[in-house]
Amino acid sequence: MFRALLLACALTVSAVCASAQDLQSVLQEDPALYNKPSRGTTADAVEALLASGAYDVATFLERWQGKEVWQHDDGRFVYVTDSDPYTLIDIDTGEEIGTADKGELTQIKPNAGVRGVIGSALVRFQLSDPDPARRIAALDAINRDGSAEHLEPLAASLEGETDPDIAARKERLLSLLTARFGDTTEARVEAINSLAEGVSLDSRAALNQILTTRSSVAAEVPEGTNVARIRKVDDTFTVDAAYAELASAGLAPTTVSDADVKSALTAHIVDGEVAGVPVAQMNDPAARIRAYQSLVDAGQAAPFVPPADREAAVKAHIFFDAYVEPDAAVTDAAYAAMRDVDLKVSAMQTADIALDAVSLASIYFLAAIGLAITFGVMGVINMAHGEFIMMGAYTGYVVQQVIPDYTVSIIVALPLAFCVTFAAGVAMERLVIRHLYKRPLETLLATFGISIALQQIAKNIFGTQARPLTSPGWLDGALVFNDVVSISYIRIAIFVLALIFLALILFVLKRTRLGLEVRAVTQNPGMAASMGINPDRINMLTFGLGSGIAGIAGVAIGLYAKVTSEMGADYIVQSFMTVVVGGVGNVWGTLAGASLIGFLQKGIEWFNPSNTLAAQTYMILFIIIFIQFRPKGIVALKGRAAGN
Amino acid sequence: MNKTLLASNRSVLIFLLVLAIFTVAVTLMAQATGFGLISTSFVKTLGKTLCLCIIAIAMDVVWGYCGILSLGHFAFFGIGGYAVGMWLMYARTEEIVAASLANQPLPATAQEVSDAIGTQIFGVVGSSELPALWMFAHSLPLQLLAVLIVPGLLALVFGWLAFRSRVTGVYLSILTQAMTLALSLYLFQNDSGLRGNNGLSGLQNIPGVSAGQDWVSVWFFWASALALALAYILFAFVTSGKMGSVIRAIRDDESRVRFLGYHVETYKLFVFTLTAMVAGVAGALYYPQAGIINPAEIAPIASIYLAVWVAIGGRGRLYGAVIGATFVSLLSSWFTGGGAPAINLGFYKIVWTDWWLVLLGFSFVAVTLFFPQGIGGLFDYVAVKRNANYGPDDGSWRAEEGKPE
């Protein structure tokens, strides 16, 4: 800080010492440069100001750029405050020097081009500004739109920089600018090599700019051209496209398109014939060409280059992409650096996809674990599971209507959703499923009946439009690792929620009396009953537990997706897949299934990111094939418990 | 066992008689052929219902008789519809394109015609080329063959994979549901070659036919009735006799049948594939009457509704499936079409378009719980019982296999 003060003092002192001329007199030397600035003259104007060494040029430039400089009718340039009558302020001393009416003053309004030139001149002041915020703003401006003239002031400002963060940014920016605009090849190559170490968007943008190419064509590659690649004529770069390029470069005569041929023929129909060829034969392309050739011979149509000639012309030329940058050493270095960066970026993208996959897997785990438990313990499939998810999400929505504070409402909604769906699950087990244990396929259908009824009831109550479930403010935003890898806090929260439930379920199943009984009923209900366990009670509690977790999953899903009456249906098939792939009646199996499906879906999406529908299709096909090899899932029950 | 098919299945005769009377009655009431008592669109609705009855019978055979709860038969139905729809759309577009190109001064080249057809059909999904999938679309016989072969082949491959790895019960249901979902998601893509979620449309216009829709609707009604009759006879044949006994035995206890030396997988595969092909035919008749087909029709929910119809009608008896499909689909269109009067409870007005699904859902639960025999079970009360009633679940507990009714 002390150094900064010292520096500021030094600058001030030197400025004051050098102020042989005051600002006003510099301006008056050629007022037209300042009150009617044009893009071409502004650089000279700024140069003149700087050369004068006048005090406080920076403030003047800033105000000039901000349209805050006015000219009085007597020719003086002034700043003003207030309005009508305006208070005039001297541009050198900053003191009030009287008032004037609006009629006596003219505001100077530089156009956008001029303001840009002033801006870049200002940069050198701003880069050394005592206020760090302004230095950062200057860096941001250069970052947005850097140019060769920034290079020198940036390098100069680096020396006096005291803030280590800003110094680091300046250095980065300096190497970005050096890479693009440096004086010598060596300096540029060195800067480019230093860019290869990062993966940030701006270094990639700088490299891309160096590697800009222009397509061209010639009989031979001209001397001194920095060729990026030769373009081969093949399926993607067709002969027609190549010939069109030749023609537009003036290296071959232009030919006519099929549409031109057609319109020329149409224009020359005489008595049902075109140049002696009957119109009725014109459904044959060869006849059309024959007729057109006759027209050309008669001088009635533009010449037509036959395909063979076109191909020969294309063969006689070389099509290539040339770098705009003439220095091959620089482009080679940039190309190598780009490859390094690309490699790193793909590695980062893989990490990013993996994070996405983990969060997707957490959602599937939450959605499916309830299903897995009920299916494992009772052997019944609950088609209404998706509707329990929906019920949980709507519970969250209703709670948010009552409790406006988002944090509190989420904390209330989670247990409440559990209670609501737990009750619904127990009721459903008591009323319906209990009577169908011997007929598992009919359970599937009866629960489906409940599912469509619940869905329609939700639609009748809440309407068809999506309802928002707003997450608390502290879950907004994302954890950003760098320009490539980031993950939103909501997804992290869902991941944590999934972990908590994994631990909770494992604890209940492995460490409590209830869990022991549940496992016993899972393995052999008859034997468990003879040991004094009441399977009815266990079934009821298990079903309630499974449904309750679905309710929690509903709140979690509702936080990042919209709550609709059909949201359950979107997850039910994936949940079934998770259970089937993972293996029935095992928490770890469900976890494995959810991970497999989550990673698989994201992996397939990576190959074809534009098409999530295709990703789901391929995933389901994969699962169907997977079931061939492990019909009982990844973690299969063994021994007698496996049943038949 | 020496009795003829009809003698051992009296219900077939009764059914055919009822169907014939119904067909004649509708023909007499239709606008084109009779006194015009019912509208053309209602004739179409009835024709579509007959097609739904065909697929319901197929579902009944695969589920009620063979015990495979397939949630994928509507996919086969849809494939049949797409197959015939491709020809309808291609041929119709060809007519339109030919008519519009005929006005041009120059006759069009073959390339121009095919480009114009491609643009006309695929303009909505931003493409103008006919995909390879459409290479047979110009030929009606080939596309009709596809109606049978594509669903059959898909069912054969899928069934072979599933049955040989002993995927049974609820697992199999979910797997068939996944297959259906995969197919419908695939068709939803714009680059699937079948116009994405726009589906195929304008199928009610039969190329080369100048008769009005009143005639076309009656023709399709007759064709559907004929197909239903044939399908009924076919499945009555399949489910009677020795093969029928084995099929029902598989439903009741698969392992025991396997231990007795029967090759269970082959029987299941046969039933699965045959019903898939019949479903394809039903779809091919249904969609020209509906006029439009899109991937939403294939979504898993449709196949589940199919199971609902069969369960409400009564599983394990062919006429039960027909009753269920007719009853539920007509009732559904009555309720959702606003035909049912709203009930005013004073504090709340029950509008059936909103509450019909709730009613259906709960009545479905009630049927499953209290009337596993479905509506068809009512006939047991009036019919003279010659044999004990063997439902889908009790059969395996009997000492000897009884004859079907």
TrEMBL record, chain A:
Answer whether the UniProt record assigns the keyword Transmembrane to this protein: yes
The way this protein sits in the membrane is described as: Multi-pass membrane protein
Name by which UniProt lists this protein: Urea ABC transporter permease subunit UrtB
Q: Which domain of life is it from?
A: Bacteria
Does the keyword 4Fe-4S feature in the UniProt annotation? Answer: no
Any stretches that span the bilayer, and where are they? Answer: 363-385, 406-428, 489-509, 540-560, 572-600, 612-629
Q: Which residues form a coiled coil?
A: none
Compartments (UniProt record): Cell membrane
- Kindly report the protein's main subcellular placement as a broad class: membrane
Family affiliation: Belongs to the binding-protein-dependent transport system permease family. LivHM subfamily.
Cite the entry's keywords alphabetically: Amino-acid transport, Cell membrane, Membrane, Signal, Transmembrane, Transmembrane helix, Transport
Query: Signal sequence: where?
Result: 1-20
TrEMBL record, chain B:
Pfam families recorded: BPD_transp_2
Q: What's the protein's topology in the membrane? A: Multi-pass membrane protein
Q: What is its main location?
A: membrane
| Keywords of the record | Cell membrane, Membrane, Transmembrane, Transmembrane helix
**Where does the protein end up?**
Cell membrane
Spans through the membrane: 12-38, 50-79, 140-163, 170-188, 219-238, 266-286, 292-311, 318-335, 355-379
Which InterPro entries does this one have?
Answer: ABC_transp_permease (IPR001851), ABC_transptr_urea_perm_UrtC (IPR017778), LivM-like (IPR043428)
PANTHER family per UniProt: HIGH-AFFINITY BRANCHED-CHAIN AMINO ACID TRANSPORT SYSTEM PERMEASE (PTHR30482), SLR1201 PROTEIN (PTHR30482:SF4)
Q: What is this protein called?
A: Urea ABC transporter permease subunit UrtC
